[in-house]
Write a structure and sequence with these properties.
- With about 325 residues, the chain is α/β, with parallel strands linked by helices.
- It contains 15 helices and eight strands.
- It folds into two domains: about 240 residues, Malonyl-Coenzyme A Acyl Carrier Protein, domain 2, CATH 3.40.366; about 60 residues, 2-Layer Sandwich (Alpha-Beta Plaits).
- α14 links the parallel β7 and β8.
Amino acid sequence: MSHHSQHSRHSEHDAHAPVAVVFPGQGSQRLGMGKDFHDKYPESRRVFEEASEACGLDLTDICFSNEAELALTEFQQPAILTVEIAMLEAMKVHHGFRPTFFAGHSLGEYTALVAAGVYRLADAVRIVRLRGKLMQQAVPAGDGAMTAVIHRDLDVAALTRFVARFEVDVANYNALDQAVISGLAAPVTAAVNALREDETWRKAKTIPLRVSAPFHSRHMWPIQEPLRAALADITTVDAWADISVTSNNTGTFHVGSRDELEKALVRQITSTVRWVDNMRDLLEKTEEVVEVGPGRPLRGFFASLGIEASSIRDTRTLSGD
């Protein structure tokens, strides 16, 4: 039976059904994000204030009016995390939203860990600001590239082997029909050209992404050590709570070990984001999935598995409209 047909058996109003919340990462940002929540809910304003103080940035300015800074990954990462937690806090207080399982795509994994009670907001925004800064320093802006590869019969293992010849990596396995390749600009171009000429791949659609660095690739290796040191330096509120959070790196749920959590987060920056595996694991626990964030790119990925993920922007009872 497909997930989609199972979905109809669930009561939409079953208060006891577990709910998963999912958080998008970079690429979901937009100028003005979170302003509606900030202006309407004191809980959301407090999140902005706490996060701004913790990471030494005026996040309301960056999110609402500073397009130049919002484009920089060092500022974009704490800004997105803050907006997502600000939205979540308002939903919890005013609409009784109580997720049981948590997942996030790339940067969104840090939001999920805050939401689950593993990390404090203040520590997480400092870590992701550093993560963004390190990622940008690893490869000068313009030297890296990422391209989405969309193919109806996507074989991600075959794609990984194909692009490896060009020293290009598969950064994300996002949906049954979509992966993203990542590397230095010239090798990525060469890999894309080779895909177009290859019998198996020529029907694939390739879309260059607007990114400032080749994320989730071998070119992020130099920043693993400083990220590891920074993660080791902060305290987990409850490391065991991470068993309700999926790991992009392993594709399964975290295991309740601080050591394993840190290893997975460090490996996440150089390895494939196994989002398809994360979605499948979530859907074994529940089919009620809510996407919380400034944009909603993850809904389309769930759709490839036959699941309609509701979104805060579309769920009036949650957004308070």
